[in-house]
Design goal:
Helix content: 25-40%
Order of helices and strands: HHEHHEEHEEHEEHHHEHEEEHEEHEEEH
Largest sheet: 4 strands, antiparallel
Shape: globular
Oligomer: single chain
Low-confidence stretches: 220-227
Number of helices: 13
Strand order of the largest sheet: 10-11-13-12
Number of strands: 16
Radius of gyration: 26 Å
Length: 405
Amino acid sequence: MSQDSPVSIDRNIIDQPIEWEISQSFVDYAMSVIVARALPDTRDGLKPVHRRILYSMHDMWVTSWGKYMKSARVVWEAMGKYHPHGDSSIYEAMVRFAQDFSMRYPLVDWQGNFGSIDGDGAAASRYTEVRMTKLSEFMLANIDEDTVDWKSNYDNSRVEPRFLPTRFPNHLCNGTMGIAVGMATNMAPHNLSEVIDACSILLSKNKEYLTVDSIIDQSIEGEVDRVKEDYPVSIDEIMEIIKWPDFPTGWIIFDSMNIKEVYTKGKWSIIVRGKTHIEESKNGIFIVIDDIPYQVTKAWIVEKIGELVADKKIEWIIDIIDESANNTIRVSIEIKKWYNPHEILVQLYKYTNLQTTFSVNNVTLVEDGMQPKLLNIKDLLIEFIDFRKLVVLKRSQFQLQRAQD
């Protein structure tokens, strides 16, 4: 081609204002973060990375009764097939699933170094081993019986579940936290037995309970996803069973009146304290820390107390001894004789994380996992009950068809 020959370039140029393009692109990005990364689905209480980890373990038969498998293999299985993001973020999510001080009911059983309540990190994934817990198997029970919806993975090479057919309300039992764009979630964990009992109360007191025949009729008409019921149960009745959150670490509610606001509005703050007691002996007077608030690192508390003593903001402390071992927390703070230890304890609550605030914000994804919404305790229970009824219905229809065939 000569230098003077015309060059034809085929370009797909879209002529539009840059302000509109930036605005639209940011909205698309924000919705992607909200729906596909940061917020949990109300049905199984999981974010996509957590769901893909458990499904990968299920797909690899890393069961609770089988052998442990290297964490690196599970991480790369999830990353290669379903979650095309960094392996470190996947491993960190799996590590948290295994920590009994992070999860009220751990969903991953482990061998090796998976970190500590002192803030120590886990060993590299090539050194640790994992398998499913019995409870995580309940989250995947009957998944192969047409109980969930499926979607293509990132490269359309296989399919993955949109949600898991969990047998228990994981979003309430284990809680979760996440920061999206313009919104965030921070759900508190609760006692499994209490949550199941609350679900039973909702069902038993519902006089307008739909029969199986009516649900099947609506499913045939294509309206099964919109079946909702009005459960005539008050927040007070629910609180007779679920009285307060149940964190994995020990704690004391400082102001229990806040719990009613949390369960009614779905958004409020709870002031919690670590457990302590006073010991007096011939060796001296000691303030002993037996447990610390949820999501607080023990080493931070010990370090902060040392700084306060060095800066003379807290006086009359002779020594700080961390006597913790295995899963037992015990931090002894020696006080000078003839001084009131309760006054020092008040100062510890004031200046350290021995007293902290847990801000509840029950924002989860509803309407087929596409709509973020703030829910109170009753709404969270109803969402799970309605979801679980559909799972049981679909499972029954699948088993009936298989028996007929």
